Amino acid sequence: MHKEFLMGNEAIALGALAAGVNVVAGYPGTPSTEVLESATKYGDGRAYVEWSTNEKAAMEVAAGAAYAGARCLVTCKQVGLNVAADPLMSLEYIGVKGGLVVMVADDPGPISSQTEQDTRTFAQFAKVPVFDPSSVREAYEMVQAAFALSEREHTPVILRATTRVDHGYEAIDVADRDEWQSHDVEGFVRDAARWVIFPRLSVANHAKIEQRNARLSQEFSRCAHNFVEGIACGDVRRGIATHGINYAYVREALGGMEGHENTPVLKVGTPFPFPQDLAVEFLAGLDEVLCVEELDPVLERALLQACGRHGLKTSVRGKLSGDIPPSGENTVDSVRAAVASFLGVENTRTTEADASAPQLPVRPPVLCAGCPHRASFYAVKKAMQGKKTIFCGDIGCYTLGNAHPLDMVDTCLCMGAGITIAQGVCHVEPDTACFAFVGDSTFFASGITGVVNAYYNQADLTVVVLDNSTTAMTGHQPHPGTGRTMMGQVVEAVSIEAVLRGIGLTTVETINPFDHERAVQTVRRVSSEPGVKAIIFKSPCVMLARPQATSVVDVSRCVGCRRCIRELGCPALSFEDGKARIDETQCSGCTLCEQVCPVGAIGGGERL
């Protein structure tokens, strides 16, 4: 063993490697991305690692390997679990031979997601055991425990970490590489009665799952990751139930409250199956309990159920009672305030912290200076000016095209949905020109089926693929169109244009969005054609290919019209002393502002 200072996601990857993981598959999504990347970074070559085209594919690849006896890790974020839900729900009924751990990163806030869904609730729905780490160290330990449980019980197991654990850091003890387990794969053994899901098998296995989970509830009551600490005292005996990173918040809060440091705390590391016996022991000695948790009131509901089942008079409070906010991310300060109110203690530390904290600058999300998506949106906007149009967006950097002055994202639901939402509009509003924007990685992940649906059902829309040759939003991961894999192999890149033509589209044009006038003319021409047609705006992400020259303003020619600023919204552009200004530290020299300037006052850039 040795000590390392690790990010939570790195610790999860190292824990999986120490457990002898054979296959790691996932799709990038903040805050989960670094787990798979770290499996490659720290791995010794024994584990196969892939960025799958989407989470459903990742789950099914892992399932196949687990059928053969391999230990497999799937990585995704909470909304990615929705994509993988179809195979996971059936996989719980079929079971696995090797260990299969599904690492899901929840995102309270949400900081970088569409939703605040709680994977603890999903685990109950799917009947899948779930581990909920409270620290980087516990995440490292829990992923290994999850593999052992999965293999023993022949079930998928979810490891549910949240942003503050995923991206938190801690110095922890980890196994040396020569201490890592080596897991041999037996191989797939044909057995249709086990691996082919039919109704009769599902009914039988459902009953077994319920029996198993009841047994695990008892086992988890004796698990090291679930415990009670502290002693109840006083006229009104009060305690706190918590989980995950909130356990650290509660401990910090109690540590600063004199006389309440030993308040009883129930820490739940396995929210499903819920450790019922341990919870009853905790509740029996208390008059009031405060449930400090993020997202859904999972603990609160479980404790209320335990009180009802066992006839306990303990008052259970939390989100349902209004003592904890029903949504959003908890913080050290918010938990301290809630705990202080519950215990009847004056909360002075929060007030002092608020008074001394500096006001943070406002940093609204914006497309990077030189981002090709800005040029693409602007070209479409100019081409369709004055026409009744809807711009359906998607998940990725280009979602930021909704910000003014571009204002080019009218809808955004989930990955791939822009293409199908545009179809819904076109069928009921035939006089509306429908555009669907999708990124290159998203196109492969979930956009292709939408295009097939549009072509088959005779929709009338323009698909705009924003191809910047990477998965930029989550950190520039490779995808099928980049020509390289996570294992470092150089492969034949999948051509988006060839895929579109293979579906049946006859009008597919590829153009550099920084060739502004030509781009505008292309949009006008292509969008006027009937049926499903596509434009591929192809230009690399500015973080991958940055021009050497930057644009500069000739102040003697600038007339102060602000057109470059009003129409583009580039963060490198500003206005000072009646003239446009360009921040050379941000400018990439993409030349878009040069082409927009009506008096030719900007020059010097280098178009990619």
Features:
608 residues, alpha/beta, Rossmann fold, 4 domains, six-stranded parallel beta sheet, five-stranded mixed beta sheet, 22 helices, 22 strands, globular
Explain what the structure shows.
The protein has 608 residues and is of the alpha/beta class. The protein folds into four domains: 219 residues, Rossmann fold (3-Layer(aba) Sandwich), CATH 3.40.50; 127 residues, Rossmann fold; 167 residues, Thiamin diphosphate (ThDP)-binding fold, Pyr/PP domains (Rossmann fold, 3-Layer(aba) Sandwich); 52 residues, Alpha-Beta Plaits, CATH 3.30.70.20. Helices cover 38% and strands 17% of the residues. A hairpin with a 2-residue loop joins β20 and β21. α17 runs parallel beside α18. It is globular. The two termini are 50 Å apart. The model has no long low-confidence stretch (mean pLDDT 93).
